[in-house]
Predict the 3D structure of the following.
Amino acid sequence: MSSFKIAIIGSGISGLAAAFRLQEMAVEKKIPLTIRLFEKKARAGGVIQSFFSNGFLLEAGPDSFIIDKPSGLQLCQKLNLDSQLIPTNPNLKHSFILKRNQLIPVPEGFFLLAPSKILPFMFSPLLPLSGKLRAGMEWMIPKRISDSDESIGSFVERRFGKDILENIAQPLISGIYNISPHELSLQACFPRFREMETHHGSILRSFLKSSYLPPKRVSGARYSLFLSFKQGMETLVTALVSKLSPSCFSWNTPIESIQRNSDRQWILKGPQKSITFDQLIIALPPVHAAPLFHSLHPDLSHLLQSMPSQEAATLNLAYPRASIHHPLDGFGFVVPEKENKHFSGCTFASRKFDFRSPESFELIRLFLSPRGIQYFHEHGETETINLLINEISQILHISGTPMLSQFHYHAQAMSPFRVGHLEKVKKIQSMLKKLPGIEICGNGFVGSGIPDCIHSGTQSAEKIIQSYG
């Protein structure tokens, strides 16, 4: 029996998960399978990358993954990585929001877009009294009748008012997506809030009826639901690569276009040669997948091109503990746009997870805002680092200069789900049905987190195997 040849374009976490699942199913179903992963760079993992420097563990991309979506944890268990997993610091329970250079705790029970507990919210100094009263009137606001998509910003402002959007919801959402809530799709990012409004007519009423309550003593991001690895997130990438044959990988091999021959096989065209495969998985951001379809399916190419990726940049800074005169008694803080800083959030990395810094030292990590990324493009890395050091020093009362700084920029870190995203995904799926034998997966379609990417890659692999026969 001839081998069933499958190509995967892209070796980020989605592509690796797809390859791992293909290999698993080939053994289970006794399928003679040949897998090739084409990667334009010299390494796998995409934005997931961990570094060690002078006893510090630095992340260039994500520093953890959430466990309420099971795909991530399930894959770790299959890879025997349980002993490497570590939780967030159990002694820390909250994060902060910056207000006039002061760090104010996120009100207990404030869950991403809305307060689930009234008293902590009413006593918080983050909002003026008028803003609290307006938010408290949410239960009187009629529900939206239209089924059309709505931005997160519009939803929060419509139900709770401008103050709660600008002072709490916007920085919390921007801390996740690094984009304005007015650009993000409510139905794609937080569909449960739309369900709560539809079913109960009010978010507060839904919380009171216990229809959807966040975990106790949790505010902002649900940090207790996150895990990482002792040696950094690249542990997951390394484990996946080790499970695949070295012959699977074609490094430094960009694919420029795809075509289909008369035998309904896929022809992958690179700079030097073309290679033919039976089935194809494209594990790329939509904007990178778009050129591949330019001649094969122009409408699909155009639709993918309309889903641009978001830039991201981070700065790791290390200091002696004695140099930081803030207690760092939380996981970190987010920054409202109105504060006019050049970063949207800061993680106290050495407090959030163990094994991140030597004893008596602290590691903090800044996430550049769109304003900060624009400054980086205009002034360069050195000036941007100096500007950020100055801003964070004033907030955390840091004396002296950092003993270590490491800047990372990602041109295409993730594809945020803008208003109308789900309708675009539906159209993409409809177009792909007319191209049997090809699957698209990755963070630009059904979720941006690591478990989402793993699930997406795994599903693509399973669909490909179903077509064997």
The chain has three domains: 4-42+251-308+417-466, 50-92+310-414, 107-219.
